[in-house]
Structures are given as C-alpha cells and as structure tokens.
Specification:
Elements (H helix, E strand, L loop, with lengths): L11 H9 L8 H14 L4 H14 L5 H5 L3 H7 L9 H21 L2 H6 L7 E2 L13 H12 L7 H10 L3 E2 L6 H16 L4
Parallel strand pairs: 1-2
C-alpha cells in the first residue's frame, strides 16, 4: 500500500493533487499567479472546495493570464458574483484582478514574478523534513516576510498562513512527510527543475 501524507484522506481529487502537483517546484509566472490567487480564495474554507472549483476559476479568469486578468472590467467581475461555480465573495473575486495588477508591477521590477517569489528562498526549495503531519507549521517567519512584502506591493488575501500554503503548493518548501512516497521524488524533481528551467 502506498504511504502518503495524511491530509488528502480518501478523496480521489485530493489524492491526485497530492500525488501529481503539491510540492513540485513551479517557476512559471502564470501558474504561480494562479496558485497564489486560489490560495487566497481558500481563506476560511477548505482547499478541496477550491480544488473542485479550480477548472471553473480558470475559465472565468482567462486561465489566469496575468495581463488579461488585469484588464478585466468591474462589470465582468460583478457578473461572476452570481456564479455558483465560484466562491461568491466580492472582495475575494476582485482580489484576483488587483493581484494581477500588482503582479505586473513585480514583473516590471524583477523581470518575472517567479524571480521575485523564489528570491525568498534564494532560489532553492527548503527541505522541511517533517516526521509527521503534526510537525508541519501553519506559517513560518519566512511566510510572514513574504506576506508583508506582498501586502506592501498591493496584493490581497495574502496573510502569512495563506502564503505558507502557497509556498508548500509551489514547492518552495517540501513539506511532504518523510514517510510519504512523494518526499524523495519531490527532492529529485526539484533538482531536475532547478537545472532545466530556473534562471535564479
């Protein structure tokens, strides 16, 4: 029987996300932007709720193309407030556009959103070495630093807990537990991806 982190439970969508995506280092601006926004949509909810709505979010928000989302009009976003396929929270939905605008400014300053995000871990994933799920923190001083800087730059729904969940999801930290079959795979994948695509 495959041993994995405890949090996916028995939900097939959750298991697939854990096995295929969670913790794999991401360097593409669009994907990083999507992950940050969706983590913000999760605030006060469970991740599985957002995961099951993710495909519809992609449809409604231009596949999280940063420039296209930044140009979305109020009328369009207001129309999404009646869409039951999304979390119908005005502040959350508008935050996706404001985050896109903030992301454009970051790209102009750093060259890419990826360079900016990965600079917080000096371009190298942190090895959490978590023995059990209970040892995985909800936030860290690093996620607090990221949160503060994102807020300063105009990003919304980027509290320290949200930022740490984001860091875990995009592979900035490998928080698969040591007994999880993905722990060592992620370490190897991180080395490959760092060698192939990262320009940090």
């Amino acid at each position: 029987m495959t041993s994995r982190c405890a949090w996916p439970g028995m939900d097939p969508d959750y298991i697939d996300y854990h096995d295929q995506e969670w913790g794999v280092p991401v360097f593409e601006d669009r994907v990083l932007f999507e992950c940050l926004c969706l983590e913000g949509q999760q605030a006060g909810l469970s991740w599985i709720t957002i995961l099951k709505k993710r495909a519809h979010y992609r449809t409604c928000f231009k596949n999280f193309d940063i420039d296209r989302v930044a140009r979305m009009r109020d009328k369009t976003i207001e129309g999404l407030l009646i869409d039951c396929g999304l979390v119908r929270n005005r502040l959350k939905l508008y935050s996706i556009r404001s985050n896109a605008i903030a992301c454009q400014k970051v790209r102009n300053e750093f060259g890419s959103f990826s360079v900016y995000i990965w600079s917080f871990v000096e371009g190298c994933p942190i090895d959490g070495k978590r023995e059990t799920q209970k040892t995985v923190p909800a936030s860290t001083p690093l996620s607090e630093a990221l949160s503060k800087d994102l807020k300063r730059r105009g990003f919304k729904f980027v509290g320290t807990t949200i930022c740490y969940a984001f860091m875990q999801a995009v592979g900035m930290t490998n928080d698969h537990t040591l007994n999880c079959f993905r722990y060592h795979q992620i370490k190897e994948e991180a080395l490959i991806r760092m060698g192939e695509g990262s320009k940090l």
